[in-house]
Known about the structure:
Number of helices: 4
Amino acid sequence: MAMIKTFEDVEAWKKARILSNEIYELTLAGTFAKDYSLKDQINRSSGSVMDNIAEGFERNGRREFIQFLSYAKGSVGEVRSQLYRANDRNHININDFKSLSEKTIEVGKMIGGLMNYLVKSDIKGSKFLEEPTSPYGLSQNFYEQDEM
C-alpha cells in the first residue's frame, strides 16, 4: 500500500491546486480582472483550500489535521459562493461556472471523505496515513456518504 508521506501526496490537495490555478487563470481576463475585490477574494479563498490541507498535514496530529481540513472545506464552500457572484456579474460564462462549481463540490467531498476516514482511524500521526486502492480507505461510493 502507498503511504501518504507529504501533503503533496494528498489527492484533495492535488485537486485543490488545480482548482486554484484554474480560478486564477479565469480572473486574469475580461471584466473579472477589473473587479479587484472579488478577484482577490476568490484567489485567496481557492488558495486557502490547498494551504489549509498542507498546514494541517504538517502539524503531524490527527486532530489538528481534521481541524484544518474543516477550514479547507469551509474555504471550498466560500469559493463556490464567490463563483455565483462572478457569474451574476457576468465575469464568467455559465459553462465555466458549472465546471468550476462541480470541481468545488468534488474537492469538498474528497476533504469530507478524508475527514471521515481520520475520525474513524486509530492512526495518530498524519505521516502514517495508508492510502489503499480507493481514496482514504473508503468504499468507492464514499462520495455519496454523509459529509462532515
